[in-house]
Structures are given as structure tokens and as C-alpha cells.
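Pinned message: reference record for GntR family transcriptional regulator
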Amino acid sequence: MAGREAAGQEITGREITDGPRPKHAQLRDILRRTAEQELPPGSPIPSERDLAQRYGVSRITVRAAVGQLVSEGLLTRAKGRGTFTARRRVDVQLHLESFTDDMRRRGLVPATGVVSCAREVPPPAVAGALDLGPREPAFRLVRLRRADGVPLAVERGWYNPRVVPDLDRHDLTTSLYALIADAYGVQLDHAGQTVWAEAADPATAKLLDVRAGAPLLVFRRVSSAQGRPVEDMTSWYRGDLYQVTMQLDRTDPGSGPHHSATRR
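Predicted structure (C-alpha cells):
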């Protein structure tokens, strides 16, 4: 690092003392309080050498304290640049709301980039989900979603051409669900969604500006309108910036309403 980033932010707090509590645990608490209460997200912290000098501990002690906070998600390392306070996660509750509207409601600026859009023959599982015939092409759309300029999600979706013909002729950088409603008179009213964790492959990692193997949350969603399938979308979200909140009760899952997906 160089310049301001090399020095990092000044960290104040109680001194580290000899005693029964390990020094790395004392330093970890100082850094945790600083990351949570004093520094804004994305702020650099001092280097290992500076922290070691400031608190009179070894660099091994600093490395242990910082490493634990990185694993907890409070700090993040950027290769060749240093260590920073992590950006706060976007907390999303599962319901039907566009990504664009959701980000704006949170005071974030949404943006969408179209990576590709073309008519292709989908794999059998997608063709079955969209109720398409053998070898019948569909629209395959890949988009990158950003919040305040930061890459948040990669979406790779398939769309039923019987419902949304000429989809590729539209502006696909806006809310797709609003476009489908306005241009085709189709209001998506139901979605089934499956969520799992996955390590970022090199192509997805490059789009999201994370290292290959970084943790991602993956959502596969099949959306329909009045029982007619329209969309089979898989989205990869950065695990360091995104989390999901759900309300749970003890009702029989077969008897009550299902959670539907956050729409993009």
C-alpha cells in the first residue's frame, strides 16, 4: 500500500497489558470495537507492522487478531492493498419486490449491466421448468447487478419466448419484472425458490470482483404468471455483502403459504 491507505485509519483504545487474557484476544476486541463503532465500511486499518508497534505486540499476535475478524466478516483483505473494514451486508427479506426498488428503498443506487442476451436451446431441466418443447429455444439473459457501484450479484436466467417474444430488443438494464408487466401485460405472481451455498468459479468471481472460491449465496427461482412459467433464473450473490432474513413459525409447511422469492 502507499499514501493514505498505507497508514490506514488511526485506531484508539485501551492499551494491551500483560495478564491472564491473551494479547491477541485483547487486540481483537480493540479492532472489533473500531470496525463496528468507529470506522465507516471500506476504511483501511493500519498495517500489521504499525499495529505491532502501536500496541507493543508481535506481528504474529496482530495476524491472529486480524485473521479472526476477517473470518467473522468484520474485516476484509484486498491482495496488494491491505485490510479494510467490511462493507455492511444487504439484508433482504424474501418477498416479491424488484431488486431496483429494494435497493432504492435502502438508500442505495442500483445499476444493471447486461453481459449477454441471446436465443439458445436450454438444458432439459430448464426446458421442463418453462414447459418448452424439445430443442425449443428460449432467451438466455446474463446480467450483473450493482448497489452503490459495488458488484452484488450475477444473474443467469432463461425466459419463455412464448410469453416474452423479442425480449432481446428491450432495454434490459432496468427492472425486468416491471418491463415484463409494462411491455407484455404479464404480472409475475408466484415463484418457487431454492437456496444453497457455493464457491465462486473463476468467471463469476471476475464479474463480482472477488477471488475464485469466495463464498456465494445461490438462488434458483422459477417464476410464473397465472400458472404459466415465465422465468428460470439462477443468481449468485456475494456472501460478504448479502444475507437473507426469513420469518418462521411452527405451521405445517404443506398447509400454509410459501415464501416467494425476492424478484430482480
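Pinned by admin. Summary line: The two ends are 37 Å apart (CA to CA).
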